[in-house]
Structure formats: structure tokens, C-alpha cells
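tl;dr need the bound structure. longer version: we got a ligand (magnesium ion) that a collaborator sent over and nobodys looked at where it sits. i said id run it. heres the input, straight from their email, havent touched it
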Amino acid sequence: MKEAEFNVSVPDDVGGLLQEIHRRGGTMKVKVAENILSANDRVAEENSRLLKESGVYVINMMSSPGAGKTTLLEKTLAALKDKYKIGVIEGDVATTADAERIEKLGVPVVQINTGSACHLDGSMVRGALEEFDLGSLDLLIVENVGNLVCPAEFNLGEDHKVMLLSVAEGDDKPLKYPLMFRESAALVINKIDLIPYTNFDMDKARRDSLSINPRLDVFPLSCRTGEGLDGWLGWLESGINAR
Ligand code: MG
Ligand code: ZN
């Protein structure tokens, strides 16, 4: 049996594909994939263009549920909201609980409820962008749906992906879920105040993360005690100022 793998778009290329199989006179294993992702990339590209024209620096925050994305957002907004104009997009499967937490800080926020989807995609963010006065913003923070897997596969039009790993999740996560670590520009390791109560090995977590992505900037911190927050805030400000 002959085997070949190539990408086709459906339905336009089906005729050509059948001809090709016939021409080669055999059965073929065909990978009809990546269509959804490439369609998303096109929308993400449009988002990116719109955001760049508006002069907004955008980060896409990703982590498993409970790592502390919303809490890090609260700490970040409290520190920077008087210095910069900041907007927030909250992605959750259900509820407006996180958007309500952000709204209390007086920052414009749009909640996206994905229903059954376990990640945000470019189109969802596109819709939310229409709710902001983009020209007035310096920074837009998108909090993705809590999930360590597929959010990393969907570009939203952000400048940088940022991921959080919390101490309670364990130091084995970089090697088990490498894509998110590979795609991110910064890694926040949250809840370091819990280290004495766990067997989390910070050196291992850092080493494994950097083995996947040597360009990763790593910020161990505790949102609860405030330890290490300055390094993270400095990184974010340099991104804003570069734009
Ligand atoms: Mg949240
Ligand atoms: Zn998903």
C-alpha cells in the first residue's frame, strides 16, 4: 500500500485529491487536518493588525483552572491601572464571576462565555474587541479558559502568550504539557508560598520549562504574599513600552 500525507482543503480540493489517488493507483492515507487552525490564524492575523494599528499591547494568559490567572490579573491591575489604560477580556465556559471581580477595579472588561468550547479562538476575541475603545488602550489582557492543552493551539492576535503554573499542580507539568510552555513568552510560577507544603522542585520546573523553550522568561511569585510580583510587572511594562 502506498502512503502519502498532504494537506488539502475541503471541499474545493476533493476532486483533485481523488484524481491524485487514482493517478498513483493506490490507497492513500490522507491527513485532512489543520483547516480549523488555519482559518483561526487568518482571524487572529486580522485581530493582530487591528490591535497594532490601535497601539495596544496584548497578552493571552493561559493556565489550568485554579492556577491563579484572575488573581494575578487583580494584582497586576491594582499595580498598573493608574499608569496605563488597561482593558480585560475574560474567557470562561460559564458565569460572569471573573469579569465581576475585574469590574470592581474600575477597568473595562468583556466576558466571553464559550458554552462548550474549552478555549478562546480568534473569532470570539474579534467580537469582544468591538466592545472596547481600542485607540485609548495601552494594554489588553485576555484571560483564556482554564485548560492546559488546546488554548495554546489557537492564536488570538496577541503579542505574547503568558502561562501560569501553580506550585500545587506539580513540577511535572512542563514535560507533560509541552506545547503551552513552548508557545509562551513568559512563565509565571504562582503560589510559591505553598512550596513548604508540597514536594514541588523549583529547579526542576525551571530546568524542564527552559529545555522546552529556552527563550521563556520565568517569574516565580506569590499573588497571596506579593513576593516576586515586581519582576512580572517589569516584564509587562517593558512590553507595553515597546509598543
Ligand atoms: Mg479566572
Ligand atoms: Zn479547547
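gonna send this back to them w/ a short note. Residues 69-70, 98, 143 surround magnesium ion (ligand 1) (CB under 6 Å).
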